[in-house]
From TrEMBL:
InterPro entries in the cross-refs: DctM (IPR010656), TRAP_DctM (IPR004681)
Domain TRAP C4-dicarboxylate transport system permease DctM subunit: from-to ranges: 13-421
Membrane protein topology class: Multi-pass membrane protein
Protein family per UniProt: Belongs to the TRAP transporter large permease family.
Domain of life: Bacteria
Keywords: Cell inner membrane, Cell membrane, Membrane, Transmembrane, Transmembrane helix, Transport
Function field: Part of the tripartite ATP-independent periplasmic (TRAP) transport system.
Protein name: TRAP transporter large permease protein
């Protein structure tokens, strides 16, 4: 067996064994990379240390802590609540209206934070108690909120797109643009799925608010609605880069929370910064560990090795894409989104490019698969968040998410068959 084939075995078996022991994912990546270096006769502790540092020594990665901070400030400063209040004012009175509120708020909040966990926690904290009080089935309601939460990694600004762009050297701005149409499709798909779920349920239907009251609530959400316009408009016009957009988003959210809404005191800023720092440290340590494994993957030439194994499928881009998406769905059930990007994107993208697949389109599909993995057991990070916040059993949430999961799979198939849905808007916006 060649050294490259041995390295592949060490990578695949090593990751499975280490993950099976419950080891921290970043440490598992470092140890796997070290094992590959040993097999390739490239062992050098100084080289491993250099790769750990270079994994986080990246200007675009600065977007990650600032988008995380922006999400925390949105929740603490009342921005998220005003988005939900506005959605409720317009559609909360219809039958099953709180479900439509959850979908609308999820789409709007996704255009601000880019964090599935932050958006899901905010939606679940506010809406689940209201749904319980009005007699909504808790398993389906929790499943809907979890499904809405994973729109955040798709609609810009998106932290997974930042990580993917840095890892694969793909344009982050183009990735952001590629997520707009699929993100809106996800929202529309949830509306149809929720209407189907509503059949046979006897849910309350309220009286619509007067137009004057609706406009008043919408006016209260003005500063929140201005945030995505500033972020997307600034990037599209070239005023700032995606990394600088994250800084703008964080400072804008801080300004609104302290001086406009005045729902957050200066004394609370420390707690927000600590929470954001803890989340950032987890993501950055993963990036550092992934760089070690990624370097050894490149050294072992694993992409070309896998290309040789795939053989004829490289000549059929749609078949190759379908196979890769199936593999990613299976991976997504076992890994969180960030590790999936860091580990598998550098391996799969060269194969996709060799088959003539647009790298931005592949990035969108890659992240979409990983996002769906967030609501797929056994890992299902977002499912755990909803279950914890709503005090609902995890099996119940898993049952409730199934109709929406089927909808997302249908959207995934649609995007595989018609890649122009993603590619054409990117070309037009450029």
């Amino acid at each position: 067996m060649s050294a490259e084939a041995q390295a592949f075995v060490v990578f695949s078996v090593g990751m499975l064994v280490l993950m099976g022991t419950g080891m921290n994912m970043a440490l598992a990546l470092v140890l796997t990379g070290a094992g590959m270096a040993w097999v390739l006769d490239f062992w050098d502790t100084q080289l491993l240390a250099q790769n750990l540092v270079s994994g986080v020594d990246s200007f675009p990665l600065l977007a990650v802590p600032f988008f995380i901070l922006a999400g925390e400030l949105m929740n603490a400063g009342g921005i998220s609540r005003r988005i939900i209040d506005m959605a409720q004012a317009w559609v909360g009175h219809v039958r099953g209206g709180l479900g439509y509120v959850a979908i609308g708020a999820a789409v709007l909040m996704a255009s601000m934070s880019g964090s599935a966990l932050a958006d899901t926690a905010a939606l679940a904290t506010i809406l689940l108690p209201m749904m319980r009080q009005q007699g909504y089935p808790m398993n389906t309601s929790a499943g809907l909120i979890a499904s809405g939460g994973i729109i955040a990694p798709i609609i810009p600004p998106s932290m997974p797109f930042v990580i993917y762009g840095v890892t694969t050297n793909t344009s982050i701005s183009a990735l952001f643009i590629s997520g707009i149409v699929p993100g809106l499709l996800m929202g529309a798909g949830l509306i149809f799925a929720w209407r189907w779920v509503l059949r046979g349920l006897n849910l309350p239907q309220g009286e619509p608010l007067p137009l004057r009251e609706r406009l008043r609530v919408t006016a209260r959400a003005f500063w929140a609605l201005l945030m995505p316009l500033i972020i997307i408009g600034g990037m599209k016009s070239g005023v700032f880069t995606p990394t600088e957009a994250a800084v703008v988003a964080a400072f804008y959210a801080l300004f609104v929370a302290l001086f406009v809404h005045r729902e957050m005191k200066f004394s609370a800023v420390h707690g927000v910064l600590v929470r954001a720092a803890k989340t950032t440290s987890i993501v950055m340590f993963l990036c550092a560990g992934a760089q070690v494994a990624s370097y050894m993957i490149t050294l072992a030439d694993l992409p070309n090795l896998l290309t040789g194994w795939l053989g004829p499928m490289v000549e059929n881009p749609r078949l190759l894409m379908a196979v890769m998406m199936l593999v990613l769905v299976l991976i997504g059930t076992a890994l969180d989104l960030t590790p999936t990007i860091l580990i598998f994107a550098p391996v799969m993208l060269p194969i996709a490019v060799k088959a003539g697949i647009d790298p931005v389109y592949f990035g969108l599909m890659f992240v979409l698969n990983g996002a769906i993995g967030l609501i797929t057991p056994p890992v299902g990070t977002v499912l755990n968040v909803v279950a914890g916040v709503g005090r609902i059993s995890l099996p119940s949430v898993i049952r409730g998410v199934n109709p929406f999961l089927i909808t997302y799979v249908a959207i995934l198939v649609l995007l595989v068959v018609f890649p122009q849905i993603v590619i054409e808007p990117v070309r037009w916006m450029r």
